[in-house]
Amino acid sequence: MTLLYAVVLVAVAAAVVAGVLYARRTPKPGELRDSAPDESWLSRPQPGDIWWADVPFREGTGGKVRPCVVLRTHRRRVDVLRITSQDKSDRSDHLRIPTKGWDPKATHDSYVDLSEPFRLNDRAFSRKAGRMSTSAWSAVREQHPTGWAG
Asked: Is Disulfide bond among this UniProt entry's keywords (predicted)?
């Protein structure tokens, strides 16, 4: 009986780990839709939107509210790229974007960090700032799969 219990426990643990890993993976382009699955999704952050959200620091301890661009919208979470106002013009993993359209107080352009998407819970988003320009969004889409996963 103890051996059977151990086998069942290991099987359940393996299933949980597999489910978590599957949920965290980046969807393949064929698994993403170009439009929202239904109207209930339209009030949520949409691919190409710029939102203010609580984004974690890369080091993993804490975070701050900063602008980010939405890559993919899932059922209860959203994949984003961070936007920084620091000059990153010397880096190939950052894309310069116009800022005036979504941050009227800005005095200079910002940079999208193309290197590492973050997965955020819906509660992390505070307010929509605007949309990426068509040319900037095209450049982001060349680097990352985008769309609705649901």
From this structure: no
